[in-house]
Predict the structure.
Amino acid sequence: MKDDRRALVLAGGGITGIAWELGMIAGLAELGVDLSRADLVIGTSAGSVAGAQLRSGRPIEQLYADQLKDAHGERSTRLGRRMKLHWVLLGLTPGPEQKARRRIGHKALARKTVPEGDRRQVIESRLPEQVWPQRPLKVTAVDASSGEFVVFDNDSGVSLVDAVGASCALPLIWPPVTIGERRYIDGGVRSPANVDLAKGYGRVVVLAPFTGAARRSGRVDHQVEALGPHVHVAVVTPDANTRRAMGSNALDSAFRSDAAKAGRSQARLVRDTVAVAWGEPPS
């Protein structure tokens, strides 16, 4: 029996990644391809914020408009090449993948960053609704102590704010998030998108500001291949114009508005590719 269930995968990508994803979703909706109708939304890091916003019930145009607001006074931080290289080297720790994730987690636990409570307030401010949506949403994270990959949803007994906060806890940049007796870091430590969670869905659209990973198993293209030959998949990444609009620092809120506008503009270029994968007629 043909499976036409649809999964939307939203990958990590910082503040500008959230904006680009919501701009893309708004642009596609205007063109007749409504990704908010997904049977499942999977969010990793920035994608968990965009996913929670999309599932909040707020109009897509309102979510987009929020990305265009003046970023004055918002906290930004620097994410440079040196930090990215450090993550790659930690991720290439010899041995099982979980061991590498555990090493990253231990580094994150030892790092002094901003107070965890301050960071939680930031996450709260980004969620229009702070309760789990009725429609399926999965949010990814990694146990900082064990390196175990975890997936939070409405049945996890974890608040949406904590789940999204954990998924966005970029190691060495933001503090690990405490949930019960455990602490968690960014789901992107395993994969920027965790596309494999869409296994079993016949139609999959992936919006990914970043697609690479230290290990092949975490890369978007590898995980897409593993979904199987009969799955309709569209992977959308920023084009050259969008990358320029997003700037070189994904955590700089000054580029948020430009990133959202670029995503909306780029939607025109990918509309038919996404429509085919989503089961909608081409233009």
In short: Strands lie at 6-10, 40-43, 137-143, 149-152, 177-179, 182-186, 203-207, 232-236. The first helix runs from residue 14 to 30.
